[in-house]
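Title: Prediction job returns without error message
Component: structure pipeline
Severity: low
Priority: P3
Assignee: unassigned

Description:
Job completed but the reporter wants confirmation the result is attached to the right record. Sequence as submitted:
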Amino acid sequence: MDLAAAILWVRLLLEAAFRLGPPLLYAALGETFAERSGIINIGIEGLMLTGAFLGFIGTFSTGSYLVGLGSAVAGALVLGLAFAFLTITVRANQIVVGAALNIFSLGITGFFFRTSYGGLTTVRAISIETLPLLPIPLLSDIPFLGPVLFQQSLLVYLALLLVPLSFFIIHRTALGLAIQAVGEYPRAADTAGINVYRIRYLCTLIGAVLAGIGGAFLSIAHTGTFIENMTAGRGFIALAVVILGRWNPYGVLIGALTFGASFALQLRLQTAGTQVPYQFLQALPYIVTILAVTAFRSRIAAPKALAVPYTG
C-alpha cells in the first residue's frame, strides 16, 4: 500500500469512526450525568434499543425525522421515569432494575416489530432514507479533516456540541456542583439544602433521553432500518466508555470515537478480504472494551455514592 492509499484508508476509517461513535457518545454522555449523581443504569442497552425502534417507526410512519426523534425521546423518557421511580423512590437494586429494563425492551421491541411488520418479506419495504449529510461550507473542503469532521449529519454535529456543553454544566455551574455533591456525599448535599431525589431524577432522565437519541441514531442516521437487537451490546460498551473517560465528557468523547473506530475497523477488514476469521473481527469492539477496562482499572475512581440508594 503506497502513501496516498494509506492516507485515504486512514481518512475513510476516521470518517466511519465519526459515524459509528455518536450512538456511544450520546449514551455515554447521558450515563455520565446519571453516574455523577450516584445512579448507574445498565439498562442503557434497552433504552437505546427502544430509541432505535421508536425512532425508526416514527420516521417510517410519518416521513419526518423530527417525529422519529420525538418518538425515541418520549419512549426513553417513559422507561427512564420507571427506572428512576424504582431505583430512587422505591430504592430497588439499580443493577437488577437495569437488567430487567434490558430484557423488557428486547422483548417488547421484537414483539411489536414482528406484529407490525412481520408480513413484509424484504428489508427494502421497511427502510427509510438515512438522515442526510450536511457539509459545512468551506470547512468541508479542508484537505483530510474536512470530510472527516465537516461532512456529517446533524446528529453527529449535535453529539460533538454536547461534549463541551456537558463539561460546562458539570464543572462550571451550580447545577453541576450539586450533581457532583449528590454523587459523592448525598447526606452532606442534603444538609446543604440540595434535593438529592430531584437531582437524581433529573440526571437519570437526562441519561435516558440521550440514550434514546443514541439508539435513534442507529436506525435513522446509520442503517435506515430497524433490526431486532440492533444495538448489539452498544449500551454496555457505553458503560465502559464512561468508566474509561473517568466521568469526564472529553474523556467520554475520546472513548466513544475509539470504540467507533474499532467498529469501523472490523467492517473494513472484512470487506478488504483479510484471512482473519470474520467471527473474530465481529468480536473486535468487545475485545477492545475488555482490554481497555482491564488496562485502566487501577486508575479509575468512581463517584463514592454510585449505586448506593439514598435514604433521606
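Comment from assignee: result matches the submitted record. DSSP finds 14 helices and no strands in the chain.
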